[in-house]
From TrEMBL:
It is found in: Cytoplasm. Keywords: Cytoplasm, Phosphoprotein. Residues 2-67 form the CSD domain. This is Cold-shock protein. It comes from Faecalibacterium gallinarum. GO terms for cellular component: cytoplasm. Pfam families: CSD. InterPro entries: Ca-reg_mRNA-binding_domain, Cold_shock_CspA, CSD, CSP_DNA-bd, NA-bd_OB-fold. One of its GO terms (biological process) is regulation of mRNA stability. PANTHER family: CALCIUM-REGULATED HEAT STABLE PROTEIN CRHSP-24-RELATED (PTHR12962), COLD SHOCK DOMAIN-CONTAINING PROTEIN CG9705 (PTHR12962:SF1). One of its GO terms (molecular function) is mRNA 3'-UTR binding. Coiled coil: none annotated.
Amino acid sequence: MKMKGKIKFFNTKRGYGFITGEDGNDYFLHISAIESFAGVYPVSGQKVEYGEIYDAPKGKEARHVVLVEQ
């Protein structure tokens, strides 16, 4: 099941940021989790869909992320 949210922020130099899900929770986002990454980094407020939440050592992490709009 695809979940939806928005980019809270993304640090392009470090390659990570956070998504705020429709459920109100924040999820860690690593650049490697973005499907078909083509060098266009996500920006704050950008809509995303993600297919999995992984229990990482430091919290919840989104996987299989698709950037919906710029």
